[in-house]
Amino acid sequence: MRNELLHIFRNTPFGRETLMASVYFCKETGTSLRVYIPKFRQFLMYFEHEVVTVDLDRAFLRDPGTAKKHAEEIVLEGGLTPHFIEPKGFTASTLPDLPVDYRYMTCPRTISNLSAKIGLGYIGPRVRNIIRSADFPVFIPTPVYKEWKRIVVFFGGSQNAIKAVQYGIEIATVSGFPLILFTQGEDKDLRYYEDEIKKAGLFEKLETLGFDWLFFDRGELKINLYEVPHDSLAIVGAYGHGVIKEVLFGSKMEEIQTVLPNSMLIVGPNCTPVIG
Amino acid sequence: MKIFIHNLNERLQLVIIGAVVGVGGGVASVALNRALEWGAELLHPYRHHWFSFLLPACGAALSSIFLFNLAKDIGGHGVPEVIYSVIRRGGLLRFRSSYSRLVSCCLTIASGGSAGPESPVVISGASVASNIASFFRLRDRQRIVLVGGGAAAAIASIFNAPVAGIAFSLEAIMGEWTPTNLITIGVASAVGTEVSRLLQGNQIPFEGQPFTISNLDLVACLGLAMFTSMASVLLIRLLRCVREISSKTVSLHWVRAASGGLVVGLIGLMLPSIMGEGYGAIRTVIGGSFSEGLAIAGLIALGKIVATCLTIGTGGMGGLFAPCLVIGSFTGLFYQRFLIYLLPGVHWAGEPYFALVGMAGVISSVLQAPMTGIFLITEITGGYQVLVSVLLVSVISVTLSHIFEPFSVYHHELVAHGELLRPRTDRRVLSELSITELLDSDYQEVPPEMPLREFVELVKRSPYHFFPVIDSKTKRYLGLIHFDDVRAYLFDANLYDSLLVEELMDTTVPTISLDDELTEVLDVFEYGHDSTLPVVHDGRFLGLISKATILDHYRKELIVEEEI
User: Fold this and answer.
1) DSSP 8-class letter at A252
2) What CATH number is given for B215-416 in this structure?
3) Matching CATH topology for A4-140 and A150-267?
4) Is A254 on the interface with B (CB under 8 A)?
5) Set of chain A residues whose Cβ sits within 8 Å of the Cβ of B517
6) pLDDT digits (tens, 9 = 90+) for B55-108
7) DSSP class of residue B430?
8) CB–CB of B312/B239 below 8 Å?
9) CATH number for the domain running over B427-563
10) Strands of B198-298, DSSP E
11) Which residue of B has its CA nearest to A3?
12) What is the DSSP letter of B320?
């Protein structure tokens, strides 16, 4: 897996904000940035067991003459070297395949041009598909560029939440930002969650790094989310439970993304954290 | 269910899932057949009106709008997409491909567009197979075989021709005949055929009358092979030409498709036999009831070529199987009438004989798949007595057309992108390996400011021969030092403190990037006569890659392929 972040550039003001967020993410996590400027309306990502089609709206193809220049300016201004991806594989002449061995990928909340769909509570179906299938986490930045100075990991004890903690440790170590665990206790005390982290062999790393734990054993999650610092990157596990359980009991990630306006790093079920 | 499947032996897994895939392929083709019948009935009353020539244009436009705007799929008949997925992507195909082209193709053909339903059914069957394999979390190699099974089931069920389905899948899609492939694809093909027979009845699509074949007819077949190869080359080249011109001149996809459909509609006013998939026209020829003369037969063959290229080349959805059969049958008919005109005293085998053999010649040449042509014609006509003639014409026609068009109509696009990797070839084996897995990350970095004295001490203790020079501050790769580079200075102790590593390092060594293909990497090794090269990405040194490691992994990959 390459220590790179994949960014699909949209040559619009909204796309500018997203790219600025990607540049900031790369600088803080020591990751290289790879920018893809689409030339076609679709591209494919071949994951291990699924091929995901990403249908782009027209805004991604707008004004190709200035797209590269704009992207270069933003990346250089951020202090990084611009690298652009030229797809090598083509499923059909107008259907390029993008590599999938990246460490992170940036997606806006929706790969759609409708401004009504970039607000809270909506993550588009294509972005969800990528989160479900990818073995890298997906970075969903705020609609307007905002720097983050803290890392908040949402930990509910599941396997996906453990992966989220691993990513949290990794990013906090590289960036030097303080790490905070957020747990909404559900009939279980703090010790249970501590044990889960110890079982995963991560507690020592957390203690060495130093962290705060926002543990709530009462109150609703939506209300407690107010305590999440406004200038933090939220790392959340997603789709860790089966479909039936999610339909019946709902998903924590959905509750969080509906309320929290922060930049988020969503860790899907197939993510494999590469530490170091 | 998944656990049950995973506990089975690998071959048994493939056989069971192959049967499920066969059902999927069979159902897809029956659904398309029924939809086409329904569409034809629906539009029948309008075909006799003055505006009937507009129907193909409307159908093509709707087909294009559905495919691009509603199903969000891409154009093309889809078979190259299946082959690409088998060659490069472990048989992964999108779910939307299982239905998008079926609907689109139905709109094109039912409205009178000149195309066949087979290629859309192939991608549909293959896509169903791919998604079933993904559901059961099978490995890439298993998924590939099942995709082949899906394609075979589709062809087998649409033509009621199980062996042709197997031959098509192995020749055109998989590119190799192996026992594992044959078993799974055979099961899928048989099940697909049975599903079709169960739902539509067991009928031979183009049953002809018996005929007597003389040795003279066999000799005449040599001439027919020339005609069929010419027709195939014309079809392939004209299709490519129409595709290129239309994509450059008209940007709106539905306008492009409609304009092609409009010309087809106008041709259809004069030559109605060229409309639609053309099965009716084939039945007329095979039944020996085509009454028009030599010139009309030739015109229909030519008209069908033009109409097919206009329909498919401008973006209408459909395949080439059925048009090839129509073109082949009329080419055969034209040839037979030409022979009678030339040698009126000779008693030739009937028109149906030459039509059947002509069909085999054209389809074999266009697909560059003689076995598919031979089995298909034999099965869909029930004419085993023409087997020798079909064999002769198919083989000669393929050989002749290969001179002008070395790749099949399906492979041409892949060749253009350098993606046609045949099984068990160097490029195919190398494509299975990545630079990341060949990377040797066991090395010792040295800074550029290190004096020779320190470097010599390091070399004494180190098991390595190559030392990457990395800038201590920026961590960027600067050059490479091989043990041989310092040999000349080893015995001159005066230089030990005056020479630095940066003065000794070789900055001309070519570097490899993670984005490079292994075939390119091997070219770099050959060109520079190097044995080991540094892998540098974004200026950062990642490790070394050696010829020996590549060969070692190449050998292991070959062993894995042979075991399979």
Assistant:
1) H
2) 1.10.3080.10
3) yes
4) no
5) 88
6) 999 999 999 999 888 888 877 778 889 999 998 888 899 888 888 888 999 999
7) H
8) yes
9) 3.10.580.10
10) none
11) B537
12) S
